[in-house]
Amino acid sequence: MAFEVEVPVRHRTMWLAFTDPEKMARAVPGLTVDAVHAVPPADGPEGVAGDVVAGRLKLRVGAGGAGATITYRGTACIAGAEAQKGTLDIAVDAAQARGNGALAGYLRVTLAQAGAAGERTLISVVPELELSGRALEFNRQDWHGAVAALGAAWIDMLAAAYRDAENEGAAVAAVEATEPVVAVEPVAPTQPPAAAPANKASESESEKIAEPAEPAVSAASPIRDESLSKDPLAAVWNGRYEKNRWLPLITALTLFLLIKRRRRHRADKPGADSSFRME
Prior knowledge:
By secondary structure, the protein is of the alpha+beta class. The chain contains six helices and seven strands, in the order βααββββββαααα.
């Protein structure tokens, strides 16, 4: 009762599809999933999730008016898997919803690469089932046709879900490969402005030194009384008391102050500048 289906999906992608129990079960036509009992991959066969899927399957057996629809209620899970060989065993245990019939056994699935570049996968399914009850009303050929049709539709639906994702990934990769690569020119580091030559700096400094300092008081500007208010002889130099009757006394006082200041000037250190100097 073996049958084969070839799908346009890569082997590695289909292996991921068949080793996901819930997605694999929801792709079966006529199967209603009631519950999924999770089994972690560490506890599953060969690191594959051994989730137990519980549900109801309506299976049409026979052709035309002689055929009938039988409803089975039961569970299915991945009982064994070998990734290197690409084989897995799906255990099935179900009973008729009405009556005393049952359906139990394994679906042995084998995945092999196909196509010139391995872009396709050939899937072979060998049902090893034991039937009882109402199922015995139909011959072997009827059951073979019913299981083959159900299996082909199941694989096509499962492959379609993963084919879309694979095509999207291939399209994205193709777009990325065809996009032009824009070369970014390296930006040369900006160099700080060159320092001015030392001779120019020295010339500017010499020019500053050579420039004479502006006198504090211009020669043409009038001398204010406030500027000489601290000078005891300011009145004498201005000539305001030339005809003053106190001139002899002022002259004597002036000589006395000059002599005293000159003695003080001699006592200072050589090179020291005085605050007042008589030319």
